[in-house]
Amino acid sequence: MQMELEGNTKFNEYEEKIRNHQANGHNYQQDKLHQKKESDAQFLIAQNPLLMRNLLIIIDTTKSSKISDFKPSRLAVALQFLPAFIEQFLECNPLSQIGIAVAEEYKCKTILDFTSSCVNIKQYLSTIHSINEAGFSMAACLQTALHVFSTTQLHAQSSILFVTTSTYSDDKLDLNEWSEKCESAAIQINVISFAGAIHQLIKITQATDGQYLCPINEYQFSQEIQKFISPQESKNHKMITQLVKIGFPQKLIVSQPTLCQCHLEIVYNFYKCPVCYSKVCSPPLLCPICSTWIVLPHQILRSDGFNTLAVFEIINDGLDHICYGCLESTTDIHSTCERCKNFFCLDCDILIHSKFKVCPGCA
Amino acid sequence: MKFVIDDLEVIFPYKFLYKEQLEYMQALKQTLDEKGHGILEMPTGTGKTVSLLALIIAYLAQRPNSIKKLIYCTRTVVEMEKTLEEVRLVLKARKAEGLNDNFTAVGLSSRRNLCINPDVVNQKDRVDAECRKRTAEWVKKGQSETCIFYENFEKSAKETIANLPNDVYSLTDLRKNGAYSIQCPYYTAREMVKKANIVVYNYLYLIDPTVSSQLSKDQIKESVVVFDEAHNIDDVCIEAYTVRLNKPILAEAINNLKVVETQIQSETNEIQNRLNEEYKKLINNLEKKPEGELNQLVIPGQIRKARNFIDFMKRVINSLRKKLKDNSEALKTSHAILHNPKSFTEEIQKEGNLDIDSLKQCGERLNLLLNTLQIAETDKFRPLSSVAQFVMYLVQYQEGFKVIFQSNNYEGTLNEKLMTLACFDSSLAMKNIFALFQSVILTSGTMSPIEIYPKILDFKPVVAKSIDIELTRNSIQPIIVSMSEDGTELTSEFTLRNNEDVSRNYGNFLLELSENVPDGLIVFMPSYSRMEEWARQWQKDKYLEQISKNKVLFIESRDVNETSTKLQQYRKCCDVGRGAALFSIARGKIAEGIDFEGHYGRCVAVIGFPALNSKDTLILERCKFLEEKFKITKNDFIEFDAMRQTCQCLGRVLRGKQDYGIMIMADKRFAQKSKLQKMPRWIYKQLDQSRCLNITSESAITVVRDFFRQMAKPFKIADNSYFTQDTL
Lengths: 363, 728
What we know:
The complex is a heterodimer.
Chain A: H1 2-23, H2 25-46, E1 53-60, H3 74-92, E2 97-104, E3 107-115, H4 118-125, H5 138-149, E4 157-164, H6 175-184, E5 187-193, H7 199-207, E6 212-213, H8 218-224, E7 246-247, E8 250-259, E9 266-272, E10 279-280, E11 285-286, E12 293-294, H9 297-303, E13 313-315, E14 321-322, E15 329-330, E16 334-336, E17 343-344, H10 346-356
Parallel strand pairs in A: 1-2, 1-4, 4-5, 5-6, 7-12
Antiparallel strand pairs in A: 2-3, 8-9, 9-10, 11-12, 13-16, 14-15, 16-17
Chain B: E1 2-5, E2 8-11, E3 17-18, H1 19-33, E4 37-41, H2 48-62, E5 69-74, H3 77-96, E6 105-107, H4 111-114, H5 118-121, H6 127-135, H7 148-163, E7 168-169, H8 171-181, H9 185-195, E8 198-202, H10 204-207, H11 209-215, E9 223-228, H12 233-240, E10 243-246, H13 247-265, H14 269-288, H15 306-331, E11 336-339, H16 341-352, H17 356-372, H18 382-396, E12 401-407, E13 417-423, H19 427-436, E14 439-444, H20 452-457, E15 461-466, E16 476-483, H21 500-516, E17 520-525, H22 528-540, H23 543-550, E18 552-555, H24 560-575, E19 580-585, E20 603-607, H25 617-630, H26 634-651, E21 661-666, H27 673-677, H28 681-686, H29 689-692, E22 695-696, H30 697-711, E23 722-723
Parallel strand pairs in B: 4-14, 4-15, 5-8, 5-9, 6-7, 6-8, 9-14, 16-21, 16-22, 17-19, 17-20, 18-19, 20-21
Antiparallel strand pairs in B: 1-2, 3-23, 10-13, 11-12, 12-13
Helix pairs in contact in B: 1-2, 2-3, 7-9, 8-9, 12-19, 13-15, 13-18, 17-18, 21-23, 21-30
């Protein structure tokens, strides 16, 4: 009986929502327009010719990560949603790389160097576990991060994402000194915290143009972490233009196991560097032998949306058109691609700009 | 911004005006209009001082006939400086609006804070005496060291003060000006107070009878007196009239008398001349016979001659000594002995053959004699003057006083017997002030229940109002914890003080808190002895060790200097993101007057109910007196006092609209209805009855975690909670 009642109320709620939608048709469209504006803005930022991004994810595994106010525990929730985030991140930023580090008692350990192999990252993520000791130290993490970033290219935008669970930063080093070093190295520091706002950490994130987010529940965590997918504007970042040697590799699948040069792991399918023929596992990456930047052609194409896709213009002529994306008729408000002059409904518009980055009409 | 309340144009130095500030000003204006006294409660950190100043200054400027002067009383020097800065801000805003007010504002403090003579200022506790030595009337050049600053002041005081532009003179300004023109800042300030429109000084300048008598000559009836942070004003009043004597003090007083006696007996012509002159003057005063009012210079014949007076004082001290000795015997068997002032006086009179009128005037006579003998080091003669004070009050006031003999266990010396003339009537000190000034305003962040203050201070306010705070988000979260996780009660009750479970549960709760509160955590405990007890237990159970992993731990000590360095370190730890916890006392220095704004105070936990020790004779007697005179029961008063102390502690955490913090009350007694009613409205309103009242420590921690996550979100104050120039 109880169940039924609950079910009923849920159902009523939905019905009401649907009814409201029909009644406030105007608002619904306004919402969509607002969404379009947002996705366009993000698209424009992503168009920034920052082709490459290096993201270091530092996960706090100290004692407070065991607290079970997020079910089953804070760390488990983080590890549950991170793989999806990483997948999306690599998809939207094809030339980017992700590294993983864990913060332990007064120190920070990198467990995976920069790579863009999603499978690899997920595998390493599953090995992370909580420790019993307290003692998260931000300064130690920054020290490690600076060391890791020192080997990456100058033209890549580097950022750190902290997943913290502690309410303090217990530093043996001078935190200010290290955060200033990060600032001058144009490393963006972002924090997503389970514990609440720590004044000093907020100050550091602001100084490096990063964000400090604090999700209330599991769902919000999965939503808020999406904010880091598209690159954020950074005042500190100095644009360094330099010629980069690029090579397009050849893909090989073999039946005999072999070691890749980049991570020294056993692989069956790998890519061959066009310069030195060394085996690498997951482009894009810097060839460990000859330092050629090994990328796949479609990665370059996708990350440089500049030439293939522009912001669609909104047309409010009140006429019926067939959307080129979903082949449904659209009314009132729709948008058009400048180049191929095809019409799109707002839903498709948002989808194209946030995910595909290629106009189906022009292609 | 500029706006009009009724028909008064107020200029406010900020671009925004909160709703509660407007409400406060309206209530204040009503008080001034009706020329009466008022009590106003407004939450801490909402711009109380600035709204008060803006309105009163506007009033001063536009109704010069009804109000001529503002006297603002603060408790500490820091608050004084802050207030003066706010005055400066208001006056600057008025100037920017093109108004020419010609107001002078000045702060007055003790010599210790104002002296700039390098030889004197380094002497710390002896500044007063050293200064008097150099500046007293009889000090002639060459005879002893003089103070060049004071000499310059004497020469050209009137001109300089007249030439000073209308401005705000804070203590720093006064010192700077003094150093520049080589004039004594203290005396300059004292002189300026007479002329200035806005005066800021300490409570005691009005309340303490020995100090206020010096200033009272220059007071104008058409003044507004403001007591800021006035929630403890009754305690200050009582303390000002309470005199304590013990064996060493009496012995010292005898020594003082011997010094005076040798001076009198010395055969130098000069001193004899002076003594004769003094005697003649006293006779003359007698002949003039002032009309009606009590002239303090009419000295009864028995003590008119210096030699007689010395003799008289000797008899007084001897009889007091005898009394102390007699009662010490009796104290061996009982806790404390009480005497009625009336019977006690009679006993003393019989003992020493003393006359009532002489007793009444002995304080005056003593000052006169010291003046005549040109004794500058008045601090050395303090024992003697406290004896004089003791007998003076004893004779003058019969009601509301008690003579109490008890063992002194405050200062660690066992078997030290203390004779206290205790005052219980807080209206005594305030009576003069209410009569002397047109409007007296008591204001503070926590004055609930507001009805009790008019009762114990014995006056009729025209306005008594508690103003609410309007919060855009629930930025304060009061939580009342009454149980631990396993269901045992959390309480600091006297009967359970040896129960290890209780202290362990408190320790566990604090450990959890330290793990979940970011940045600053402040913990208040009922008393030093209780804190020491608990700390010992926590040390044994390793709680302290674990807490110090999460936060750097600081513990308030009795030493003021040590505490202030600890506070500095505490702030530093909060600044670097390490986080810190501060253990302090609900009635200590930190609970009052020190603000923990922003991240310095994210959570305040009051552990245990900070009730007064109801076994203490002084407090018992005070409760008895209140019950007799004002019909306030003992329980009511103790609860009231504990709750105001608690709320004062809790108020430390919220210092502005952007600020947020948690207020934890961990004792089952807080959940009782009579206590909840005594909470200020702005705290009570935020107490979520279903979620945060009477909960276990475990669920409290859940609330804490949720709260901090919610508050971390970026936030903007809602548009409808403040006014701008356009929306007004």
